[in-house]
Every structure is written in C-alpha cells, then in structure tokens.
Amino acid sequence: MKLKISLIVGSFLLLLSGCIPVLDRGEEEDIIIVEETEDSEEQHYVITPTIDTPENFYRNVLNEGRYNRSPARGNVADAMNNRIDINQFELGLMEIATAHFPQSDYYFQEGQFLTGDTINSWLRRYDSSETRYMYGLNPPLGEGETDEERMRSNPLILSNVMEHNYWYGSEEEGVNLGGVVIGLALRSVYYFRTEDEEGRYHFHEEPLDLEMVEREGRAMAQEVVSRLRNDERIGDTPITIALFQEQRRGSIVPGSFIAMAELGEGQTTIQNWEPINEQFVFFPSNQGRNTDPNLSNTFSQFRTDVEEFFGRTIGIVGKGRYKNDSLDELTIEFNMQSHGKAEIIALTQFVSGRLNSMFDQIQAPIYVYFNSINGPESLIVRHPDREPYIHIYK
C-alpha cells in the first residue's frame, strides 16, 4: 500500500480518546458503536517533524494536514477496567513497535483498517447461529443451571483490540505501509452481573487463571492474524501482535504486556512467542519492600526528608516500572494543597538535589510531578548521567 506525501514543519498534539458506551446483549459487557464516514478518494498526506526531547517519539502521517484518528477510536476507553490500564496499553504498544520499526525510519498512524464495528464484533461471545456474534473471539456461554454458573464458567477474556500502523518512505518516493501492530487486552478479573426473578441485580467477580488467559489470548492472536491476512489492504505486510494483561479494577498500578510475536512479510502462522517480563511496583507498599527493598528504603527516607523540609505531611507516591527484574523507570508524584509559588520553587529545588544525592545509583529515568488543587505546579526529569531538567509552571 503506497501513498504520496509532502513534508511540512509544524507542531503536533496527540489527543486522548473519548468513549460512547452502548449496552450489548446480556449484562456483562459494554460495547461501543462507532459511526463510520466515507473519506474522500483523493487525500493529501503530510508528515510531522521530529521533536527534540529526552524521549523519542514517532513522527506522524497526517491526512490533509490533520491527525488521522482510527475509525475505531473510542473502543478502548470503555472496554477496559481503568484509566491507567488504557494509557499503558496504548503507550506500551508504541514502545513495542520501536523494536521492529525504528523511529528514525518509520512514521506512526492510528490504525486505519479495523473499524469500530469490526472490533465490536470481535469482542462479543462467539455464536454461530447469529450473524452479529459469529466473529466473536470470546467463548460462548455453554451450559449451566443459572446465568451466574454459565458466565462464571465461561468468562469474557478479551476486553479490547488496538491497532497501530507504521509507514516508511520519502517525499520523492511516497510512503508505504511498513507494519501493522496489534494489541489484545486480556482480563485478569471477570466482572459481570445477573438479575433474579424479582428484577434485582447481583454483581459478581471471578478472578481468572492467568496461565489460562494467556493461552486463550495466544489462540485469539492467531485468529486475528488470519483475519488480517485476508484484508487485501494489509496483504503481506509484516504484523506484530502483543498480549496485554490488565489489572483488576481500582488497581494503583497498570497492567503490562506479557508476550509478543512477530510475523514477517506474508507469514500467516505465529511460530514463536517472546515472553515480556514487565511489572509495575508501587512505593511505599509491601510489594515494593519485597520487590526492591533497597529502593523501598531509599524512597521512605526520601519522603521523610521532604516532609521535614516542608514542615508538613505531603502526599508522595512512587511507581517503579521493572523490565526483566531491573528498574526501567521511576515516577514520583507529589499531591499538595495550594501553596505559594516561591514555596513550590524551593521544594522543587530541594527535591532535585535529593534526587542527585539519594538516587544516584539508579541507572533509569526518574520523573517527578508536583501537583496541587490548582493543577500542575512543577516537574523534574532526571536521566542517568545528565543534569536534571526542571520546569516551573507559571
């Protein structure tokens, strides 16, 4: 698939998705119906410039100078259990893509091939007797004396599907579709409700066996690949597919990707799965003490020092992201009441110094966000072997 483009220079803002909930059959899942519109046959494509930041970002392919949203935009926000899972699902999928589609050579675009109707049909339970359910990837209800038994023994596993597209090329040669990346979000807890004879609702939850979830997710992934290969717009394009394990409702840390597979040009069968060893750890917590006792102790001392400097208790929490059992990123958030700007500046400077003295052994980026009831106050970004970047919001 090939498109002609021209290059422009300008700024770009990635907008987060909204949602339009519609209740599906039964009382166990929300399905979003996305209105689809016909696009003009003649389209003019442009590419955003590279942004010079400590982190790397993909340049984007724009349609008529505008950000090209996925026709399935809105599904993720309502199908998954919490906001932090949604964000990690989207950003983590882009991160996975960097291993196969270098940011210097490829341009990003939200998925353009899977529509809202298509994803909705995949999220339903399979039922060969009804057209709208015959493409469902979730298991049929099966047998049981009560609705609760049928649902509990046949949980909905797949909660969402996300598609990203990656393009390559130049102004002179045009751009070509270089890869399709698909994420499958899998539940860790199945939430559902039943109604008794008197019309009263009963709410249930069923913790799922994670090995079973991954096994089913891999089978679903193979079916998704087969369906993509039948789409002539995708054809032989390389496909990367990844499984995301959600956290339960109310979790303070997000879920994570657990496995991925890469299919080369024209490949139709997933040959190998690559495990992804990733987890998020909250500080302070028992999990933090058990996972990384040294960092846990340092973080506790850091909180004590900051509160002594500030003269009062402050809400300070940390979230560590671990890959292959090593810290890959640490995020620290301050949540305060309203304070004077001079006080915010002094606190930010103090914390910056403490990062250098107390976390000097951490060879991972540290992000510190200061927030109050008035909104963002300041931030610090510290990368290994670099001076911290400090910004005070005016």
From TrEMBL:
<protein>
    <submittedName>
        <fullName>Protein involved in sex pheromone biosynthesis</fullName>
    </submittedName>
</protein>
<dbReference type="Pfam" id="PF07537">
    <property type="entry name" value="CamS"/>
</dbReference>
<dbReference type="InterPro" id="IPR011426">
    <property type="entry name" value="CamS"/>
</dbReference>
